[in-house]
Design brief:
With 179 residues, the protein is an alpha+beta fold. The chain folds into two domains: 124 residues, Thiol Ester Dehydrase, Chain A (Roll); 31 residues. It is 36% helix and 26% strand. The chain contains five helices and five strands. Strands 1-3-4-5-2 form a five-stranded antiparallel beta sheet, with helices on one face. Strand 4 and strand 5 form a beta hairpin. The radius of gyration is 22 Å and the shape is elongated. 24% of the residues are buried. The C terminus is likely disordered.
Amino acid sequence: MNGRSVKDLKIGDFGVISKTLTENDVYNYAGITGDFSWLHVNIEKARKGLFKERVVHGMLTAGMVSAVLGTQVPGPGTIYVSQTLKFLKPVYFNDTVTARAEVVKLDVERDRATLRTTVTNQRGEIVVDGEAVVIPPRPEHEPEHASASPAADQIRTAGSKARQVRSVGARMKVRIAAR
């Protein structure tokens, strides 16, 4: 299933996802990224720091926006182009946060959507604010090879040439070995 194309989106369309961020989430994220900063994993040192307790990684919190974009608005098949972020307040262990993405601009000609992105805590305070630009999925009846950008065409062309070179190289090895 694909999400909505730029032609199917409307200004004001939005999606939301909520999650309680736990100690387990923080340690899993730290393990994946390698960010074991004491702010996130050292209780004793965190008590002496600015926030007086451990905090959730800012990018873990902001990453929830990606879930909204990739599953709701525009939905499956969406390609992230850019994201701005402002971290306004800390998120603590066991805070329930809600990520929201709302369509604020559509560029049908360039096949782009701009969305205001926010993450709020259980008190309704904005903890992360930003803006995302995405390439929404294409309608299912459009061919997959239709290009979103000249850069995408170059990547496809380069990939095709690389496969051709590998193929030629494999044939050359076979010929050399046969001599």
